[in-house]
Design brief:
The protein contains 14 helices and 19 strands. It has one domain: ANL, N-terminal domain (Rossmann fold, 3-Layer(aba) Sandwich), CATH 3.40.50. By secondary structure, the chain is α/β, with parallel strands linked by helices.
């Protein structure tokens, strides 16, 4: 029989956690016994224009399924991720961007995020994007991907992020299903030293009028690689925002207004667009990030997921940013240029919490101790897998 192994949490970590095991049990019990007061209390994690008084309204009848959270409350996701932090944390780093190549890196503060998001939001409004319109985002793992999401949220547009590895047909299917008005992409992406033809894939998706709802394609110049250009709808990101104001008042959104659409993988049939509404989703992301990762104000957090998946939405953009986290935003892959990349990034930024996939961990385990050799991992307090 295999012996059971337990790994007690070190005492110094126990002393500083948000919740002890007993406190967690009490918290869980209250969420079951009195969910309305529980969620009303924790809704204070968000900033509201109008605080909700109707907390939970659900029906699960055979022909009547309805789920509403905070339905009389109003707020804005972009405001909760950016503006609320500017008085205290304007100069705090929001993103430590680490490029595909170890030589490429950039720190972006919350003030800088606000500037970029407002300018893009105003550019979208100038293109006729209004509250409720859909915007498709097909981007590599660069800060502009987050800017695009938050710019949509700021003006009440519904973003639909498409994973950067998907084909032109998959892009077209998602654009047409959501009737997106604008696509935001980049000239190319980079992965393990290779170029990914993002703009070319969008061009193929739109070819021959295949996506009639699209009026504009915004292109971020990342690699400077050659791209085909259609002057009828293509516009460079930097040119689109050049004359736009760096101030954009957030749209007041009802808690039940849609924030984004994200499509299922399609592994069991046609991909389905799952609509996530604003209030309930934001609170879930904020709360699970804070407690599951035991996030502290000065922590450096890193999630290795792609923003094209729900993990990237919840634990790279909305959850961390609502909590004013500083995080690593990683364009690369764990084994490029070699298997020490993860450990080197942890050491470089003194990462405290690392959230990654079992697949990545298994790939590194195959190399024994080599992935960590010569690297200082003493900052790492928590390792999570999805």
């Amino acid at each position: 029989m295999t012996a059971s192994k337990t790994y007690p949490v070190p005492e110094n970590i126990l002393q500083s956690t948000h919740l002890t095991a007993a406190q967690y049990d009490d918290m869980y019990k209250k969420s079951i016994d009195d969910p309305e007061s529980f969620w009303a209390e924790h809704a204070a994690l968000l900033e509201w224009y109008e605080a909700p008084t109707k907390i939970k309204n659900t029906a699960f009848g055979k022909n009547d399924v309805s789920i509403k959270w905070f339905e009389d409350g109003s707020l804005n996701a972009s405001y909760n991720c950016i503006d609320r932090h500017l008085e205290k944390n304007a100069t705090k780093v929001a993103f430590h961007w680490e490029g595909d190549s170890p030589e490429d890196s950039l720190d972006v503060t919350y003030q800088q995020v606000h500037y970029e998001v407002c300018k893009l939001a105003n550019a979208l409004k100038g293109m006729g994007v209004e509250k409720g319109d859909r915007v498709a985002i097909y981007m590599p793992m660069v800060p502009e991907a987050a800017y695009a999401m938050l710019a949509c949220a700021r003006i009440g547009a519904v973003h639909s992020v498409i994973f950067g590895g998907f084909s032109p047909n998959a892009i077209a299917d998602r654009i047409n299903d959501s009737a997106a008005k604008v696509v935001i992409t980049a000239d190319e992406g980079r992965r393990a030293g290779r170029s990914i033809p993002l703009k070319a894939n969008v061009d193929k998706a739109l070819a021959n009028g295949a996506c009639p709802s699209i009026t504009n394609v915004i292109v971020h110049k990342l690699t400077g690689g050659d791209v085909e250009w259609n002057s009828a709808h293509d516009v460079w990101w930097h040119e689109a925002i050049d004359s736009c104001s760096a101030q954009c008042e957030p749209e007041v959104m009802n808690a039940e207004d849609p924030l984004f659409i994200l499509y299922t993988s399609g592994s069991t049939g046609t991909p389905k667009g799952v609509v996530h509404t604003t209030g309930g989703y934001l609170l879930y992301s904020a709360m699970t990030f804070k407690y599951a990762f035991d996030y502290k104000e000065d922590d450096i957090y890193w999630c290795t997921a792609d923003v094209g998946w729900i993990t990237g939405h919840s634990y790279m953009v909305y959850g961390p940013m609502i909590n004013a986290a500083s995080q690593v935003f990683f364009e690369g892959v764990p084994t490029y240029p070699d298997v020490k990349r993860i450990a080197q990034v942890v050491e470089k930024y003194k990462v405290n919490s690392l959230y990654t996939a079992p697949t990545a961990i298994r790939a590194l385990m195959a190399h024994g101790d080599t992935p960590a050799e010569g690297c200082d991992l003493s900052s790492l307090r928590l390792l999570g897998t999805v």
